[in-house]
Amino acid sequence: MIIDIENTGGGLTVSHYTEEGEVNMLKIPVPKSLQFVWQKTQDYDKAKDKEWLSWDGKPVKKVSSTKFDKYRVVEILEAVDPEITKPLWDYQTPKKYFVDIEVEITDNRADSLDTENAKNRVLSIGMASSHGKVLVIGLQDMTPERILKIEKRIKEHFKDQEGDWTFNYRKFESEFDMMYTFLSKLVPKMPLITGWNWFGYDWPYLLNRARRLGIDPKIASPSGVLLGKNQIPMHVLMVDYMDIYKKWDRVVKIRESNSLDYVATQAIGIKKITYNGTLKDLYESDFDTFIFYNAIDCGLVHYIDRRLDTLSTFFKIAEVSKVEINRALSPVWTTEVLMLRKFLERKRVILSERKEENHVKFEGAYVKKPERGIYEWIACFDFASLYPNTMIQWGISPEVYIGKNLKEIPEGAIRTSSGAVFYSKEGKEPILKEILQGLYSQRKATKKKYFECEKEIEKIKKAIKTKQ
Fold first, then answer.
1. Is the pTM above the cut of 0.90?
2. What residues contact residue 334 under an 8 Å CB cut-off, 6+ apart?
3. Are residues 154 and 224 in the same domain?
4. Which of 111, 201, 245, 344 has a Cα at 20 to 30 A from 307?
5. Position 258 in a domain
6. How far apart are CA 43 and CA 60, in angstroms?
């Protein structure tokens, strides 16, 4: 599975996971014949390759360039020898690191929550790996005997869960040294970094605190680039576990809160560490428990992941749509890539066109005004996959959209209630219909396998009980 794709000028550097769950960089040279981008042309005679058209049927031409847009990058990967790109598409589970930070509490408590200004020191950073190791880095000394005691406390706290933990602690002389080491040495070596409310608090605080200390956070990326609004280091996979929990979890039925303490209690029956006084008091009076507290918060997210397995949904979306995992949360990008591949089969291409955006508000779902009263007979209807099935049935797809509120509507065209008209001039199946039918078939086949596995599991359980 791909983490990120970097255009290096005349080539691509693609980060992906190996069978061992580590990150590997695959360098793909792009031959001269593929070093171009597509542009629309108004003159059909200037379209050098008349076989190809834009997705909406306009003439296009090739313009020599090594600065490939995002759509052209996908096309290049499709054109490269499949033997070279094969490792990019294999489903591999990365080694996971569950990270949590503790920030200094001062008289103005709001400063510790202010991620934008990040005025308070980062006191410790905890990291729990999916292979049973916990490392906490901090600013105070700790003897080997105290480290061993914390390890025993961690094992006792998680005694009812699977796995055996080892614990280590490393002290830094200054916050600058600790932050620099974490960003430059540790982050690039962690195949997957996640945490609870990671993008809501921990990561933005670390970014802005680093800048305040005079550290460029770009050192966290092997290529020195931060991507998107969350400023994720290129070639490093970062996920906010709270976000994907809210989006995809189906295990926790009652959701009174999205706090780590509540979700951990509901999912695995273990709460966060409780202590007397404030976190500031704990840091000053019982540093060992403070570090233990940091370590447990990391471990809780690990066990939530073990129980809910929400990350597998995230990975599966990336695998099925063949997009970078870092961009799999974008339904727009995954849809565009699925469509791009189908268009390529028809000698059509998607161009990266910059247009002035006109922000238009659309009416949401229709809700009928209720007629108040008491009724004896009530019926409720739930349509399976209503939107995709509607698009499949009526052939709704962008390339067959021909306008709105047209005076003359071609025979066989579909006109929606909003006045939009869809018509395939070439008589071909709409692209989205093909894609959705394929995904729907995969979904049905997967559900069937799931239920077959469930039956087998029940048989095995009954056989075990009989033998006992």
1. no
2. 317, 321, 323, 327, 328
3. yes
4. 201
5. yes
6. 9
Same domain? For 431 and 394 the reply is yes
Sign of CA dihedral 151, 153, 155, 157: negative
pLDDT for residue 467? 76
- The predicted structure's pLDDT at residue 463: 85
- Mean pLDDT (whole number) for 237-260: 92
Name the average pLDDT for the chain: 91
Judging by DSSP bridges, how do beta strands 348-349 and 166-171 pair with one another?
unpaired
**What SS3 class is residue 61?**
strand
324 inside domain: no
Instruction: State the residue range of the domain holding 454.
Output: 384-468
Whether residue 245 sits in one domain with residue 120: yes
Number of domains in the chain: 3
Question: What residues have CB less than 8 Å from 427, skipping those under 6 apart?
Answer: none
Report which of 424, 289, 350, 435 is spatially closest to residue 72, judged by C-alpha positions.
350
Task: Give residue-wise pLDDT tens across range 414-451.
Answer: 998 888 999 987 778 899 999 999 888 888 888 888 88
The Cα 26–Cα 347 span in angstroms is 28
Structure tokens at 57: 């049927």
d(CA 351, CA 52): 12
The pairs formed by 369-376 with CB atoms below 8 angstroms and a separation of 24 or more are none
Q: Does 356 map to a domain?
A: no
Tokens 């990008």 found at: 333
Which pLDDT value is given to residue 353? 74
The CATH number assigned to the domain holding 104 equals 3.30.420.10
- Whether 157 is covered by a domain: the verdict is yes
Say what the pLDDT of residue 132 is.
93
Nearest to 157 by CA among 174, 134, 123, 188: 134
Give 101-154 pLDDT, tens digit per residue. 999 998 888 889 999 999 999 999 999 999 999 999 999 999 999 999 999 999
Least confident of 28-42, 300-314, 372-386: 372-386
Residues 54 and 143 in one domain: no
